[in-house]
Amino acid sequence: MATHESHKKRSGLMDWLTTVDHKKIGILYLLAGGFFFLIGGLEAVLMRIQLMEPDSKIFTGELYNQLLTMHGTTMIFLAAMPIIFGFMNAIVPLQLGARDVAFPYVNAVGFWLFFFGGVLLNLSWFLGGAPEAGWTAYAPLSTVAEDTGVDFYVLGLQIAGAGTLAGGINFLVTIINMRAPGMTFMRMPLFTWASFVTSGLILFAFPALTVGFFLLMFERVFDANFFNPDMGGNILIWEHIFWIFGHPEVYILILPAFGIISEVISTFSNKRLFGYSAMVFATVLIGFLGFMVWVHHMFTVGLGPVANSIFAVATMAIAIPTGVKIFNWIFTMWGGQIRFSTAMLFAVGFVPTFVMGGVTGVMLSVPAADYQYHDSYFVVAHFHYVIVGGLILGLFSGLYYWYPRMFNRVLNETLGKWNFWLFFIGFHLTFFPQHWLGLMGMPRRVYTYMSGQDLDGANFVSTIGAILMGAGTIVLLINIIISASSKYATTKDPWDGRTLEWAMPVPTPEYNFAQTPLVRGLDALYVEKTAGNGDMTPAEPVGEIHMPNGSILPFILSLGMFISGFGFIYSNWYVAGAGLGLVLITMFLRSIIDDHGYHIHKEEVEADIKGGRA
Amino acid sequence: MKKWLQKGRFLSLFAMLALLLMGCGDPTLSTLIPQGEVADKQFQLMLISISIMILVLVVVFVLYAFVLLKFRKKKGDNSTPKQVEGNHMLELLWTVIPILLLIILAVPTVMRTFEFSADAKPASKNELSIKVTGHQYWWEFEYPKEELITSQELVLPADTKVHVELSSADVIHSFWIPSLAGKTDTNPGDKNKNYMWFDTGSKTDVVYKGKCAELCGASHALMDFKVRVVSKEDYKNWVAGYKAADDKSSANADGQQVFEKNCLSCHAVGQNGGNTGPSLTGFGDKDRVAGILEHDKENLKKWIKDPQEVKPGNNMPKVNLSDEEIDAVSDYLLGLKLK
Amino acid sequence: MANHTQNPETTVHRHEEIQRKLALKEERKHHNVSFVMMILLTIVAFFAIWSDKISDSFAVLFILTLAVVQVFFQLYVWMHLSHKGHDFPIWGMASGILVAAITVASLMGLIWTS
Amino acid sequence: MNAGERLTDANFPAHPEKATLEGKNKFLGFWLFLGGETVLFATLFGTYLGLRNMHLDGPSGAELFSLPLVFLATMLLLTSSLTSVYAVLSLKQNKVRSLQGWFLVTLLLGLGFLGLEIYEFIHYVHEGHTFTSSAFGSAFYTLVGFHGAHVLFGILWITTLLARNWNRGITLSNAPKYYLFALYWHFVDVVWVFIFTVVYLMGKVG
């Protein structure tokens, strides 16, 4: 058996630039996403400072519109989704008992595309101003803007979006093809299920956005006329395309949070998930319905009562599977032994907060009443309740929960609790009053409001809350810094976990499981624990392990896209051509260089097992 | 009150909620203090949905609090909880009950959605019809039957059903008078014209606040307008006065000259002038300078001197005028009154 | 991998080989038939418009149906969706087609209802 | 055995494209990608259908389109789809020369199609139907151009694939690649079926 042993061990920065290991890519996603999360958060605090008092003049006009656009765009595309991808990368293959994702190379491409897209978008701040047409970039506001802000928006997100699409396909294939023996679909942990459905949504929602961005780019760069009424275009095309993507996007974001919460609540209640199959069904149903409701973002657009009514009822229907989930979580805790670790605190905070966001969602689904809510602060309050109170609390929970697996250290629990309470109280202070602001007549996306409209008090409270949320985030940063400077301090299973990711030693070996485990039930590790084994039963003898080689090509390919992005933004066809040329060259190199990876020999694996490293 | 509200236990809850909510906000701006039929019905819908949702919240929160208190791990208790797979009865329960609640909500939802659009066609004879055009960042109001065009201030008779045709001269805006009716977008292009209707309510001599609700550029926040509801009598007089008004209605001859030389190409007064900027007929009677500033000479001068300072990104050019000219033209404009 | 290759001389293997050859021959026949069908469908579609004999609204419906039939041939015969082991590809395509259908419907339909 | 090794008739698996985990992954991943591409083209079709009558003063589709040309292009592409499926049959029989031959024919037919399309576009521009002349123009060139770009990419793909593997037999590593290309090419043909139906034929009836 001749093998090509062309494996080079790289170290330091080069290792991170060339890695195709899903665990490292997960960390990269988490770091980059966390960085953008801080930027987006800073933008939010600046906006709240401007709105703290009426008639204030700190960030006005266009600058404020840039802040609001970049806040939304950054948080959704560059913070929330990458952090989700970080957890999916780090955890899903482990939960499946797989060696890696299906396409390690494509995985790296996905990350670097996202990274360079995000950097490109944020460079707009220094190169003539950020985009100012809102994260929705409605035409014609986005097409008539003369500066390059929207060009950065289109190109940056197009590049990042391509990476996301690649990631979505990757996880679908991983979950379908690479489950360990015995890991049937109905034994998969809920987080993996959520990742599966989310990846499906990405696969079918992002192409619409890709086209939308192409149309917008053609309109701006090549003077196309899709959205120009004077030339026969129609502005509603953009709105439809954007929301055909945009609503599934909301579920792309929230489903993984549902998954995390399901894992955390089950683990820290020491009980299996109540109504597992109903939970799975609800997840799939929410994903499906996610494609059927986008018009509820467009009730005031004038699509007529028939369309509005149909989409209203479809929207309400989503409340049913979501409600099933809420009750199943509560009954998972029922009769359990609840331990309030920080991860669990975030999960416990998630449930009522998300319910509040959910009920305002049902209220918004009533078109005739939505004419009052739409584009007011009520909507702002609603979607922050679901996205911050839902998704972000879920991601914090996941961070505290999986931190030991990803970084081999436990985060400090005392600081963690400070983090939770500051963030949680700050969150409600910020967003609860905003429901009232909206109902009292304050439109969203305004940079100021006049005094004497009874809007002052609630706005002030809201800003105080935002500062508290910022403080909570700073506590998290301190916690991370402290943990980073401490030694490895964790056992392999600090939370008495139930799923496969806790069945490996710390740090996780590069090949994950030395021997692919045999899965004998839902909560695979728990099954073994109660059977008295404490460890997974292997499904195969110790043998050679095939591993993919690292490669710098994903980085270079994405760099090429980044360069071509600049070319298109400044209509410099040489630069655009050079960038795309670089992309083609890397693709060409990838296809002509044979790379069959390398093998870890049986003896090495055996030595690892003996030494407790595998 | 509405028929389908009169029955049931919800009534008392409703009354309480309504009282609680109606204390909120500026009575000329808040959706919670509805002044016309449409806003009132929309407020009813809010109340129905909030009531159902509060019911849900209470059930979930009570259950949740109980679970969190009861099942926390006690020190020294290391027993393993029973691993429950699920319970079909319970799961059925929390699937069916929400469905029922949603059906209760869906019926008035669909009904009202059709009601608010059914009448949105151009008005019959005894009802008022207006055309609204959004501009960056001001509003143009045309009264087709009365054959007059105003800007920024919509004068309407009380107790009247108003039909609105909405369009935009540039980007998407959204026309919103929270106390009278929910918003509808103004879309550019003839294909996507919108129609809505609202009722002006019974109060007279009130000024309701109107807002642009769709991000439309740098001064989106400042794109306010006013809706002045007057008695039917006063409305007739206003129409007559407006139609009779001309550019001679102000006594300041110097200012008039400056105005005719520098402003008339964009702004109309009476029958004269262009229409790229807001009409200034009867400017002296208006409520705000540029839709936002207090209506006095100081502010008017400030606005003419540097429009970008007041409303960033707006289309009014900075006209090269001396301080004296600005002073004169301000006096002239403030002197423009309706007869 | 490829375990059945370890003893190539057995009669079992030979039998399999013959069966596979037959199957491939059958497949080639299917491909040829569907090619002829697709050419015919295309000609009919072009002719329906060319001839100008059929009313417009019916012609549109007719040629759209022909297109769907033709695509069915492509997917199931040439792209082998009918073969074993294509469950997930079918799911993927079906979901894609569903989303595609509502997308097309909304972009060409809903826009004009206002 | 090693995935890069030439397969013999003796060890040839029934489905060389799916015989390894990598092949299985590629196979499934590519199919899912095609599912996503379906949505991508649907969005383009929807945009086109929404704007196809917005030709303003320029020529309409009915005045513009020349059906004989489109018919010829369709025949080229349909035939190329057949030749690529012949190539897949050769793949399954481990006949590498025949595979190369059929893919070469596919490649040539694809080039022919692309040539016709370029000729057509140049012709239209002369008629006053340009990318910027109206919403119809923008939507038309975007939809048909996206398809054309797919054809072009396919041509580059198969060229690279053939060149790289010219002197190699069929291996477990290149079999999935050939197979995926064939899938891609069929899909491009599927899209074309809708383009000639929806754009050209429906364009003729207005």
Could you tell me how far the N terminus lies from the C terminus of chain A, measured between alpha carbons in angstroms?
25 Å
Q: How much of the sequence of chain B is in beta strands?
A: 15-25%
* Tertiary shape of chain B: elongated
Strand order of the largest sheet of chain A: 1-2
Tally of extended strands of chain A? Answer: 4
In angstroms, what is the radius of gyration of chain A?
24 Å
Biggest beta sheet summary of chain A: 2 strands, antiparallel
- Helix tally of chain B? 9
Give, in spatial order, the strands making up the sheet with the most strands of chain B: 3-2-1-5-8
* Overall pLDDT level of chain B: 89
Please identify the structural class of chain B as seen in this structure. Answer: alpha+beta
Q: N-to-C SSE series of chain B?
A: HHHHEEEEEEEEEEHHEEHHH
Number of strands of chain B: 12
Whole-angstrom Rg of chain B: 27 Å
The amount of beta strand of chain A, in percent, is: under 5%
The oligomeric state of the chains shown is: heterotetramer
Short description:
The complex is a heterotetramer of chains A (614), B (339), C (114) and D (206). Chain A has a domain at 348-495.
Overview of this protein structure:
The complex is a heterotetramer of chains A (614), B (339), C (114) and D (206). With 614 residues, chain A is mostly helical. Chain A has helices spanning 12-18, 22-51, 61-96, 104-123, 141-144, 149-177, 190-221, 235-269, 276-289, 305-333, 342-364, 367-373, 377-407, 413-439, 456-484, 524-530, 553-569, 573-592, 602-610; strands at 517-518, 537-538, 545-547, 598-600. Helices cover 66% and strands 2% of the residues of chain A. Chain A has a two-stranded antiparallel sheet. Chain A has a two-stranded antiparallel ribbon with strand order 3-4. In chain A, α4 (104-123) packs antiparallel against α6 (149-177) and α6 (149-177) runs antiparallel to α7 (190-221). Chain A is globular. In chain B, the strands form three sheets. In chain B, strands 3-2-1-5-8 form a five-stranded mixed beta sheet. In chain B, strands 4-10-9-6-7 form a five-stranded mixed beta sheet. A two-stranded antiparallel ribbon of chain B has the order 11-12. In chain B, a hairpin with a 4-residue loop joins β2 and β3. In chain B, α3 (37-70) packs antiparallel against α4 (88-118), α6 (253-262) packs across α9 (323-335) and α7 (297-305) crosses α9. Helix content of chain C is 75%, strand content 0%. Chain C has two domains: 2-82; 84-114. In chain C, α1 runs antiparallel to α2 (56-78).
